[in-house]
């Protein structure tokens, strides 16, 4: 996918300030839209080219939002929840619902992500399984426990927690 930059464009901001400005615009967009629609929460999506394959194979019920961007020379773009929002939700869930050692069932995280972000599917982010997707974040660690219970008849349960700071990559 090629990036489209208008002829003669010069950035007035550095990379860090550009990232902050984009974040501010997303927050303002979500705040204004939620106010206008009288909704409690609206998320500003990340847009990706439909030809990237990041939003294919949805669950059959959900449909990605799409629109043309003629100036960018693209056929259509679709929305996808950004990873920083997903990471924030995971951190929030772990802070509020983990056990005394910080562990929580990874499947519960998957349930929350699909409820909060209807477009969420780990395949949209290049993963086949939730555990692979969660492992892609440096902030979290996973462990598997052999347990037979009604929720998990195959005998193993995956748990997630925030990695201790000394175990994170720098």
Describe this structure as you would to a colleague.
The protein is of the alpha+beta class and 170 residues long. It is 32% helix and 18% strand. The chain contains 4 helices and 6 strands, in the order αβββαβααββ. The strands form 2 sheets. Strands 1-3-2 form a 3-stranded antiparallel beta sheet, with no helix packed on it. It has a 3-stranded antiparallel beta sheet with strand order 4-6-5. The longest helix has 23 residues. About 5% of the residues have low confidence.
State the main characteristics.
single chain, 170 residues, alpha+beta, three-stranded antiparallel β-sheet, 4 helices
Give me a quick take on this structure.
Helix content is 32%, strand content 18%.
- Shape assignment: elongated
Tell me the number of helical segments per DSSP (H or I, 4 or more residues long).
4
Distance between the termini: 29 Å
Portion in beta strands: 15-25%
Helix/strand-derived category reads alpha+beta
- Low-confidence sequence ranges: 55-62
Question: What is the strand arrangement across the widest sheet?
Answer: 1-3-2
Mean pLDDT across residues:
77
- Tell me the total number of β-strands: 6
| Proportion in helices | 25-40%
Q: Give Rg in angstroms.
A: 19 Å
Largest pleated sheet: 3 strands, antiparallel
* Chain oligomer state: single chain
SSE order and pairing:
Elements: H1 15-37, E1 46-49, E2 66-69, E3 74-80, H2 83-97, E4 104-105, H3 106-116, H4 130-135, E5 140-146, E6 156-162
Antiparallel strand pairs: 1-3, 2-3, 4-6, 5-6
């Amino acid at each position: 996918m090629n990036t489209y930059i208008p002829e003669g464009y010069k950035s007035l901001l550095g990379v860090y300030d550009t990232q902050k400005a984009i974040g501010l615009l997303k927050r303002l967009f979500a705040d204004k839209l939620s106010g206008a629609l009288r909704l409690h929460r609206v998320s500003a999506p990340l847009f990706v080219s439909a030809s990237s394959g990041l939003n294919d194979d949805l669950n059959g019920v959900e449909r990605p939002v799409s629109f043309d961007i003629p100036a960018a020379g693209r056929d259509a773009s679709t929305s996808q929840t950004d990873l920083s929002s997903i990471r924030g939700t995971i951190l929030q869930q772990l802070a509020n619902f983990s056990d005394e050692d910080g562990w929580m069932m990874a499947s519960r995280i998957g349930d929350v992500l699909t409820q909060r972000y209807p477009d969420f599917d780990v395949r949209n982010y290049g993963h086949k399984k939730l555990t692979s997707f969660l492992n892609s974040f440096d902030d979290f660690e996973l462990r598997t426990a052999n347990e037979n219970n009604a929720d998990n008849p195959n005998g193993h349960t995956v748990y997630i927690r925030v990695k201790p700071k000394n175990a994170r990559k720098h």
